[in-house]
Amino acid sequence: MSVITVSRGSFSGGKMLAECLADKLGYRCLDRDVIVERAAAHGVSQHELLEALLKPPGFLDRLRHKKYLYLTLIQAALTEEVRDGGVVYHGNAGHLLLAEGGPVLRVRIIAPLDFRIRMCRERLKLSESEARAYVAKVDDQRRRWTRYLYGVDWQDPGLYDIVLNLERSSIADACEVIAHMARQQACFQFGPECRQSMNDLALACQVKAALALDKETGHLEFGVTATGSRVRVSGRIGALDLIDDIRRVAGGVPGVREVNLEDVVFGAPG
């Protein structure tokens, strides 16, 4: 029961591939909208969450601290959805958001530009020139988004376990190849160690989200890691009395039994 992420350029067939994989493997198929809806349950605008996922750095710069909040909520929502395995996720940077969660099967699909433009024209009812401009714009936004947030090029093949070109292969062929990897490669099976790693990431993300939403700690930014029921919080605070608030919030997350604050430093946040 693996966790599979599908990365693709717009109109490259990623959604069709994800749905094919989910059907063939008996997995759930998740898209970006499901994750945004779950993240928005905390009272945050779905529209702004989507923009945080789609817009390039200029938009995120203007949001400043909201960028941290939105991405924290999105990661927390995603890790909760996939923590038990048996999921195919096709959405922005799933392989990066889950990078600390164990051996996720990271798939990238590429397709000829003519194929993508044709798909874009059919779905959005655009002219050829409009479709070409749209695909180029979205690709550029995704490239700048991942470079800004993670310091990587989203097209770098080294970020993926397999890259498939649909120029001479069908969606069905690609689906069969990836399904075989998920079934046969032991490193992608969701065994106890991998499950624990994903549970640790999910718990850390829940703590981070709780800190981001609390009225006393929500103006700060923290790093959180978890090992079993023990969480470790890092960050910089401007007032020592916030230590009690951090311990209260982190310790109040279900599943947390011990909170380590040795890496929380006193000083003006910067």
Name given to the CATH homologous superfamily of the largest domain: P-loop containing nucleotide triphosphate hydrolases
Query: Which sheet architecture does the biggest sheet show?
Result: 5 strands, parallel
What coarse outline follows from CA principal-axis ratios?
globular
| SS elements, strand count | 8
What percent of the residues sit in helical stretches (DSSP H or I)? 40-55%
List the secondary-structure elements in sequence, H or E. EHEHHHHEHEHHEHHEEHE
So what's the CATH class of the largest domain? Alpha Beta
* Biggest sheet, spatial arrangement of strands: 2-3-1-4-5
Beta strand %: 15-25%
How far the N terminus sits from the C terminus, by CA atoms, comes to 42 Å
Number of structurally distinct domains: 2
List the helices and strands and how they pair.
Blueprint: E1 3-8, H1 14-25, E2 28-31, H2 32-40, H3 46-54, H4 57-63, H5 65-82, E3 87-90, H6 94-97, E4 105-110, H7 113-124, H8 128-150, E5 162-165, H9 171-184, H10 192-213, E6 222-227, E7 230-237, H11 242-251, E8 258-266
Parallel strand pairs: 1-3, 1-4, 2-3, 4-5, 7-8
Antiparallel strand pairs: 6-7
Helix pairs in contact: 1-9, 2-5, 3-5, 5-10, 7-8, 10-11
Walkthrough of the structure:
By secondary structure, the protein is an alpha/beta fold. The protein has two domains: 3-191, P-loop containing nucleotide triphosphate hydrolases (Rossmann fold); 214-266. The protein is 52% helix and 17% strand. The protein is built from eleven helices and eight strands. It has helices at residues 14-25, 32-40, 46-54, 57-63, 65-82, 94-97, 113-124, 128-150, 171-184, 192-213, 242-251, and strands at residues 3-8, 28-31, 87-90, 105-110, 162-165, 222-227, 230-237, 258-266. The strands form two sheets. Strands 2-3-1-4-5 form a five-stranded parallel sheet. A three-stranded mixed sheet has the order 6-7-8. Helix 1 crosses helix 9 (171-184), helix 3 crosses helix 5 (65-82) and helix 5 (65-82) runs antiparallel to helix 10 (192-213). The longest helix is centred in the middle third of the chain and has 23 residues, at 128-150. The protein is globular, with a radius of gyration of 20 Å. The mean pLDDT is 87.
